Amino acid sequence: MEKEAIVSTLIEEGSSFEGRLSYSGTAKIAGQFKGEIFTRDQLIISETAQVVAEVEASYVILKGHFEGNIIAHNKVVMIPPANFRGTVTTPSLKIEEGVVFEGASYVPKS
Fold this sequence. Notes:
mainly beta
């Protein structure tokens, strides 16, 4: 089980955001997001999230609905009931049983 990080940025369930999001620390999206996300840190997409985005982060935990592309410099973990449609590029990818994955994954050599 992944250790829960202290969340510094939050888009709560019932809220929506469209645009470009840049931050430090850990962000959790539980609502709707459309746009671009850039961080050198962690992104958590929770079970209630609906995200359509281009993401560049260090570490991504996906539990919700995601369409777009993820570039993660360290790791991506997909946990049910995650629904992913797009492309993921990361040196470490973990997809748990029960996740819907439609797309492509690229694991670059270090």
